[in-house]
Design brief:
The complex is a heterodimer of chains A (about 375) and B (about 350). By secondary structure, chain A is of the alpha+beta class. Helices cover about 50% and strands about 15% of the residues of chain A. Chain A contains 11 helices and 8 strands. Chain A has a 4-stranded mixed sheet with strand order 1-4-5-8. In chain A, a hairpin with a 2-residue loop joins strand 2 and strand 3. Chain A is globular and about 70 Å long. Chain B is an alpha+beta fold and about 350 residues long. Chain B folds into 2 domains: about 150 residues, Acyl-CoA dehydrogenase/oxidase, N-terminal domain (Butyryl-Coa Dehydrogenase, subunit A, domain 1), CATH 1.10.540.10; about 140 residues, Butyryl-CoA Dehydrogenase, subunit A, domain 3 (Up-down Bundle), CATH 1.20.140.10. The longest helix of chain B has 28 residues. In chain B, the strands form 2 sheets. In chain B, strands 3-1-2-5-4 form a 5-stranded mixed sheet, covered by helices on one side. Chain B has a two-stranded antiparallel ribbon with strand order 6-7. The chains are: A alpha+beta (about 375), B alpha+beta (about 350). At the A-B interface, helix 3, helix 7, helix 8, helix 9 and helix 10 of A face helix 6, strand 7, helix 7, helix 8 and helix 11 of B. Chain B: GO terms for molecular function: acyl-CoA dehydrogenase activity; flavin adenine dinucleotide binding. Chain B: It comes from Streptomyces qinzhouensis. Chain B: Keywords: FAD, Flavoprotein, Oxidoreductase.
Chain lengths: ~375, ~350
C-alpha cells in the first residue's frame, strides 16, 4: 500500500497543473443547461483541447496512477466535466476498445477521443429499466442490415448525439439474457424520432427515442450476435466501476465551499450541523480512497472493473444526496430559491440513486455476486 | 501509486488468521463468555507475542519485527475478527517502552475514554502523554520511515507511570470478555492518541467483516417459507449494506495507516465504529430469534464493538476533528463550488 506518486506521476501532475492554469482561463463561458447545441459545442471543444494536449486518452489510461492524477487535478482546478462526452468516453469507447474488431476500433475510437462524435446510451426502455434483460426493441436481419423497431427511454444527450450504443433483441425465442446484441446506431438514420423529457429539476436532460424500421449495418454490431448481454455487462462494469470517480473530488470541493458558507453565516457554530459536515468530509475522503483502491484493483484484474464498483456507487450516490440535505440546513430559506446556487444541484442529486442502476439493484448485485446469496425471492 | 496489499502483507494477514484460529477456536469464545469473570489467557498472550503481535513495529535491532503501521493494521484487523481478548492495543503501543511488553511477559493496559480494561489482570497501567521514547526512526531527509504512517508522532508513549487508573471502580461489563473499570474524571479531556485510534479502528474493521460473514452464512443456510432466507430481498439488502460499510471502513483504515494523517485516522475510527456496531446489530437481526440468544456468538461481537466505540476518539470527537480538517481544506480551496454535473 502506497499513496506516494512515482516520478512519472509527479512529473505528469506538474505538467498537467501548468497546462490547466493556462488553458482554463481561456475557455468560453458555460452554456445554459437547456442549450443543447451550446453544451455540445462547449464539451467537445474541451475534449479537443485535451486531445491536442495529449490528455484525451487518460480515461482509458493503462496506468491507474496517471488516471487518478488526471481526475484529481482536473476536478481540483475546476475544469469542465466530460459532459456530453460521457457515454462515448466512459461507456462506448471502453466497450469498443475491449470487444470491438480492429475496424470498429479504427472507426469509432479516434472521433470519440477528438470530441468529433457524441454518443448516447440506448439501453433502458419503458418496460426495461432496472430489469434490463426484458428489453423488447427488436432487430431483424435484412441482408447486410438489421431493421430495428422499438423505443428507448432516459437517453441522455440523444438530441445532439451522432451515435447510440443500442441494445436490441436479435433472437426473440432465446432465453432473455441470450437473445440480445449490442449495436452502434447512427442517430441520423431515417426512422428515428427523439422526444425530450423534462426532469423534476426543470431541465430537458434526457429523451425518449422511437425507432421505426431503422436500418443499421450488421458491421455495426460489437461482439457476436446474441452475445450482447455479456458485452453490456462490460459496459456497465465501466459505468459502476470507474465512471463516477472524478465526481468524488468534485463533491469534496463542494463540501469545502459549503463549510465556507456555514462559517460566513454562523451555522458552523451549531455543533450538530458542524459534526454532520465533518462526518461528510470523512465519508468523501474514504470514498476517494475506495476509488483509488477500485482503480488499482481494476488494473490488476485486466482492466475491466469488478462488481466492487457497486459498493462505491451505492455509498457515493447516497452520500451525494446527504451532502445536499446538509447544504439545505446551512442555507436555510435560500435552499428553496431556484435562482440561487445549490437548489438545482439538490434536485439533480435525486437522480444518483436511480440512474446507472438503482440503489436497490446495486444491493442485489452486491448480495448475489459479491456475497454469493441465492438469486430470486421477493 | 499502488493501493493494493503486497504479497508479503497478504501472507502476514493469513498467517495471523491461521494462528488465531488455532489459539482461539470460536467454540472457546462461548465457554469463556459463560465462565464468570474472565481471566487473561497467558498462554495465548505468549503465543501472540511469539508471533510478533506486540513487537511488530519495533526495529529489528531492538528485537522487533521491523514492520510498519499498514502491517500492524492488518494484524489488528485479524485480532478484532477473532474477538481476541486482552488489552492488545495498549500492550502493542507499550512495546519497546515498557520492559516485557514486546515479549508478552508484561501485560499493559491504559485508561481510555473514562474506562480501563483488564485492570485486575494487567501488570502495568500505562500513563498518559509523555515524550515518545520508541517512535520509528526518521528516514532520509528527516521524513518518518516508510510505513510508520499513523503510528508515528503524537505526544503519547510515556513510561509506565503517571496517573494510570487511580481510584478506578469496577463495573459489570456489558462485554463478558472484557472486564472494565470506570476511572474518575472526565471521559474526554485533552488530545486522543492517533496510534490507539488507528489500531482500534482496525479491530472494529475485523469485527465488521466477521459479522458480515456470519450473517451471510446464516442467510444461506437458514430456510423459511421453503427457501433460504438469503434469497429474500429484505435480507439480501441488509447483507449488502453490511459489506458496503465494511469496505468503506477498510478503505479509510488502510489509507490512514499509510498516510498517518490525524484527520483521516479520526475518520477511520468513525467509519470503522459505525461499520462494526451497525453490522453486528444487523447480524443479530438476520439471525432472528437465534440472534437474541446467548448461544449464538453474535452478541459477543456487538458488545465488543460497543466497548471499542467508547474508546477515543468517540463519534462526536472524530466528527469534530473531521470538521476542523474540512474547515482547513476550505481555507485552501480557492475555486468556486462545482456546479451541477449530473446526468
Amino acid at each position: 500500500m502506497d499513496f506516494g506518486l512515482t516520478e512519472e506521476e509527479a512529473e505528469f501532475r506538474a505538467e498537467l497543473r501548468s497546462w490547466l492554469a493556462t488553458t482554463l482561463p481561456r475557455l468560453p463561458p458555460k452554456p445554459s443547461p437547456d442549450d443543447w447545441p451550446g453544451r455540445r459545442a462547449y464539451d467537445t471543444h474541451w475534449q479537443r483541447l485535451l486531445y491536442d494536449a495529449g490528455y484525451a486518452h487518460l480515461h482509458w489510461e493503462a496506468a491507474p496512477g496517471l488516471r487518478l492524477v488526471f481526475l484529481e487535478e482536473t476536478e481540483l482546478a475546476g475544469a469542465p466535466y466530460v459532459g456530453a462526452n460521457f457515454v462515448g468516453l466512459l461507456h462506448a469507447g471502453p466497450t469498443i476498445a475491449a470487444e470491438g474488431t480492429p475496424e470498429q476500433r479504427e472507426r469509432w475510437l479516434g472521433p470519440i477521443l477528438r470530441g468529433d462524435e457524441i454518443w448516447c446510451q440506448g439501453f433502458s426502455e419503458p418496460d426495461a429499466g432496472s430489469d434490463l434483460a426484458s428489453l423488447r426493441t427488436r432487430a431483424v436481419r435484412d441482408g447486410d442490415d438489421y431493421l430495428v423497431t422499438g423505443s428507448k427511454i432516459w437517453t441522455s444527450h440523444a438530441e445532439i448525439a451522432d451515435w447510440c450504443e443500442l441494445l436490441v433483441r436479435t433472437d426473440p425465442d432465446a432465453h432473455r439474457h441470450r437473445g440480445i446484441s449490442w449495436l452502434a446506431l447512427p442517430m441520423d438514420a431515417p426512422g428515428i424520432t427523439v422526444r425530450p423529457l423534462r426532469t423534476l429539476a426543470g431541465t430537458a436532460e434526457f429523451a425518449e427515442v422511437f425507432l421505426d424500421e431503422v436500418r443499421v449495418p450488421v458491421a455495426n454490431r460489437v461482439g457476436a450476435e446474441n452475445d450482447g448481454w455479456r458485452v453490456t455487462m462490460v459496459t456497465l462494469s465501466f459505468e459502476r466501476g470507474t465512471a463516477f470517480v472524478g465526481e468524488v473530488v468534485a463533491c469534496r470541493r463542494t463540501l469545502a465551499a459549503l463549510a465556507v458558507r456555514a462559517r460566513e453565516n454562523g451555522r458552523w457554530d451549531d455543533p450538530a450541523l458542524r459534526r454532520r459536515l465533518g462526518r461528510l468530509h470523512t465519508e468523501f475522503t474514504a470514498l476517494w480512497r475506495l476509488t483509488q483502491w477500485n482503480v488499482s484493483e481494476a488494473r490488476a484484474g485486466g482492466g475491466v472493473p469488478g462488481p466492487g464498483g457497486s459498493v462505491f456507487k451505492l455509498r457515493y450516490s447516497g452520500a451525494r444526496q446527504e451532502l445536499y440535505e446538509a447544504a439545505a440546513e446551512v442555507l436555510g430559506p435560500d435552499a428553496l430559491d431556484l435562482d440561487r446556487e445549490w437548489a438545482v444541484d439538490r434536485l439533480s442529486a435525486l437522480s444518483y440513486t436511480i440512474a446507472a442502476g438503482t440503489s436497490q439493484i446495486q444491493r442485489n448485485i452486491i448480495a448475489e455476486r459479491l456475497l454469493g446469496l441465492p438469486k430470486g425471492g421477493a | 501509486m499502488r493501493f493494493r496489499l503486497t504479497d508479503d502483507q497478504r501472507a502476514l494477514k493469513s498467517a495471523t488468521r491461521e494462528l488465531l484460529d488455532r489459539l482461539r477456536p470460536p467454540k472457546a469464545l462461548r465457554a469463556d463468555a459463560s465462565g464468570g469473570a474472565p481471566r487473561l489467557d497467558r498462554v495465548m498472550w505468549a503465543a501472540l507475542a511469539e508471533a510478533g503481535v506486540f513487537a511488530l513495529r519495533l526495529p529489528e535491532d531492538a528485537g522487533g519485527v521491523g514492520l510498519g503501521a499498514p502491517e500492524a493494521v492488518l494484524v489488528f484487523e485479524e485480532l478484532g475478527r477473532a474477538l481476541a481478548p486482552g488489552p492488545l492495543v495498549a500492550t502493542h503501543l507499550a512495546a519497546g517502552r515498557v520492559p516485557g511488553a514486546a515479549t508478552g511477559e508484561t501485560v499493559v493496559t491504559r485508561a481510555d475514554g473514562g474506562l480501563v480494561a483488564w485492570l485486575d489482570e494487567a501488570d502495568v497501567v500505562d500513563g498518559g502523554p509523555a515524550g515518545p521514547a520508541e517512535s520509528p526512526a526518521p528516514g532520509p531527509g528527516g521524513r518518518t520511515a516508510p510505513g510508520a504512517g499513523g503510528l508515528s508522532g503524537g505526544p503519547w508513549g510515556g513510561p509506565a507511570s503517571g496517573p494510570g487508573a487511580q481510584g478506578a471502580v469496577p463495573l459489570r461489563s456489558v462485554d463478558p470478555l472484557t472486564p472494565l473499570h470506570r476511572v474518575p474524571g472526565p471521559a474526554a479531556d485533552g488530545p486522543w492518541d492517533p496510534a490507539a485510534a488507528l489500531l482500534t479502528a482496525a479491530e472494529q474493521l475485523g469485527t465488521a467483516g466477521r459479522v458480515t460473514e456470519l450473517a451471510v452464512r446464516y442467510a444461506r443456510e437458514r430456510e423459511q417459507f421453503g427457501r433460504p432466507v438469503g434469497s429474500f430481498q429484505a435480507v439480501k439488502h441488509l447483507c449488502a449494506g453490511m459489506l458496503v460499510r465494511t469496505e468503506l471502513a477498510r478503505a479509510a483504515v488502510y489509507a490512514a495507516a499509510v498516510t498517518g494523517d490525524p484527520a483521516e485516522t479520526a475518520g477511520a475510527k468513525l467509519l470503522a465504529d459505525e461499520a462494526a456496531v451497525a453490522n453486528a446489530r444487523d447480524c443479530v437481526q438476520i439471525h432472528g430469534g437465534m440472534g437474541f440468544t446467548w448461544e449464538a456468538d453474535v452478541h459477543l461481537h456487538l458488545k465488543r464493538a460497543w466497548v471499542r466505540a467508547r474508546s477515543r476518539p468517540t463519534a462526536d470527537e472524530a466528527a469534530e476533528t473531521a470538521a476542523l480538517a474540512l474547515a482547513e481544506s476550505a481555507g485552501e480551496s480557492t475555486g468556486p463550488p462545482v456546479p451541477n454535473q449530473a446526468l
